[in-house]
Design brief:
Length: 517
């Protein structure tokens, strides 16, 4: 037996939750990180693919109803085949794998083929969809029973086995999945079986994401409402008086950025916090990293290590980005074993983001300029730091940094050394298919957090459609945009992420999207 086949494979049948990435389980994330192969479907958020190893095989298995990318038989075969090769296969399914997710059938096939499997439950849209619409599926004042049913049975079945009299007469809340397309037929059938014609009904589509939309009505009116607004799948329908709770409990949809698709172009590593904050404001976030940060190699790396080792001998240590701080301390603690060896050097940070990163390393800051750009830092030194002539400074910088700071400090008589900590490269990897989604679906707002995010965005051959508003973090980034023929619609007042978030909210409130100024 070869080494390859002697390893025992396994298939994890993982619930990917309803859409909000925060609703994935920790176990689910572990399974994606461990996978050799990830098989995902239409309803599992593609953002999760960023957790997969770069060498993992990513397979799209469909399915938008009627448009199966791989038929179910093919999926079962694929899972069995890859796992039989000794691979770790993670099968991602929207919601919970066992709630109308065919996880049971896939597990049976795996068992029959002698392949190990594990069920990793997920948060089902049948519960989460109503919750995000402000509807508790059970509530002591309303019901003591919950029924979940499908509005779309196996299309290969000749006759419907749905007994709508049971649905009509079941007490408590009823939740229907996969029923939007047959909504009129189903509501009519339930009414014909004697259900209360005024029973409140709500439909929630793309629940828990920035695209969530909800409509409400009664058993009699809901099909008309859905038709009049061309309400489309995927949606969860809730039948019951609990729907009335929404009037008071609708917590998610009133958020300021709801329904707005916002693109984040920062590095994959840095994007997640900003994306989380945007999602918390209700946005539909498209993480499309255009840059990645890499440690320098060769001579640059040796020179950097040498300067870091000598840090205690300088009067000032200057940081112009959080990345610089991270790379500096990584190198410092590789060389030195004692924090005190940094000596009495004073520390300057270009802005609050950089200062906050320093704080993570338990380092205070002696100087933060009012204007968070190189010019501001140079001015602050000239003004606040007294005479800087003949002082020694070590500037921790990116390879591609502008030379404004060094020119001005040199002119002021500073003895300046420059430690090149990292370089910014274009991000060419796109495991989540974000570039494709941007090209096909566009966005309401695109955010740029540095000149290099702009340059690398354009290097990817992308352009910004007229209807997409542009938010820039500050004047340097704006200048790069203008040089390339794009006028930013807004520039952050404070040139950091909180400043950019404020700008995005202002933009969202300011004008209806798609309109010219
Ligand atoms: N296993 C899934 C259900 C799969 S069946 C779960 O537990 O959620 C597919 C149906 O789920 C869709 O037709 C729709 O009714 C529902 N659904 C899944 N994700 C949804 C979402 N984010 N918003 C609304 N409905 C969703």
């Amino acid at each position: 037996m070869s080494e390859e086949t002697s390893k025992k494979g396994i298939c994890y049948l993982v619930g990917a939750g309803p859409g909000d990435p925060g609703l994935m389980t920790l176990r689910g994330k572990e399974c994606i990180e461990a996978a050799d192969v990830v098989v995902y479907d239409y309803l599992s958020n593609p953002e999760f693919l960023k957790w997969a190893r770069p060498d993992a095989e990513l397979i799209y298995a469909g399915k938008k109803s009627k448009n199966h990318a791989i038929p179910q038989g093919g999926i079962n075969e694929l899972l069995v085949q890859r796992a039989s090769e000794g691979k770790i296969v993670t099968r991602l399914k929207g919601g919970d794998p066992l709630v109308f997710g065919r996880g049971g059938e896939e597990a049976e096939e795996l068992r029959e083929a002698g392949v190990d499997f594990e069920f990793v439950p997920g948060i089902s849209s049948s519960i989460a969809g109503p919750a995000y619409a402000g509807i508790p599926v059970t509530h002591r004042e309303h019901c003591s029973q919950l029924t979940i049913f499908t509005g779309h049975e196996d299309p290969t079945k000749a006759e419907s086995s749905m007994d709508y009299s049971q649905i009509a007469n079941a007490p408590g809340t009823k939740v229907m999945l996969m029923g939007v397309e047959r909504l009129r037929t189903i509501t009519e059938a339930i009414l014909a079986e004697g259900a209360d014609k005024d029973l409140p009904v709500a439909l929630v589509r793309w629940a828990t994401t920035g695209r969530q939309e909800t409509i409400t009505g009664t058993l009699t009116t809901i099909a008309d409402v859905a038709e009049s607004v061309e309400f489309k799948a995927p949606a969860v329908a809730v039948f019951g008086t609990v729907v009335n709770c929404r009037e008071n409990l609708n917590w998610f949809e009133p958020r300021p950025l709801r329904g707005k698709r916002i693109v984040v172009t920062r590095t994959r590593k840095q994007a997640s916090r900003m994306s989380r904050e945007l999602r918390d404001l209700g946005a539909d976030v498209l993480e499309m990293p255009t840059i990645r940060i890499e440690r320098c190699q060769g001579d640059d790396a040796r020179e950097f290590a040498h300067l870091v080792a000598e840090v205690h001998s300088y009067d000032w240590l200057i940081f112009t980005s959080p990345n610089g701080v991270e790379h500096f301390f990584e190198a410092f603690y590789t060389i030195r074993n004692d924090a005190r060896e940094i000596g009495g050097v004073r520390i300057a940070a270009i802005g609050p983001g950089t200062a906050a990163k320093l704080k993570e390393y338990h380092m205070g800051t002696d100087l933060i300029p009012e204007k968070h750009v190189a010019e501001g830092l140079a001015e602050a030194f000239e003004k606040d730091a007294g005479s800087i002539e003949n002082t020694t400074m070590l500037w921790v910088r990116a390879k591609e940094a502008r030379d404004v700071l060094s020119k001005r400090l040199h002119a002021a008589g500073v003895i300046l050394d420059e430690a090149i900590a990292y370089q910014t490269l274009p991000e060419t990897d796109d495991p989540t298919g974000a570039v494709k989604r941007f090209r096909e679906e566009g966005a309401d707002i695109i955010t740029f957090t540095s000149s290099s995010t702009v340059e690398c965005f354009l290097d990817l051959g992308l352009s910004i459609p007229d209807e997409t508003a542009i938010a820039s973090i500050g004047p340097i980034t704006s200048a790069t945009l203008v040089e390339n023929g794009y006028d930013p619609d807004i520039e952050a007042k404070s040139h950091d992420i909180p400043g950019l978030m404020e700008a995005v909210i202002e933009l969202a409130n300011e004008k209806p999207f798609g309109e010219e100024d």
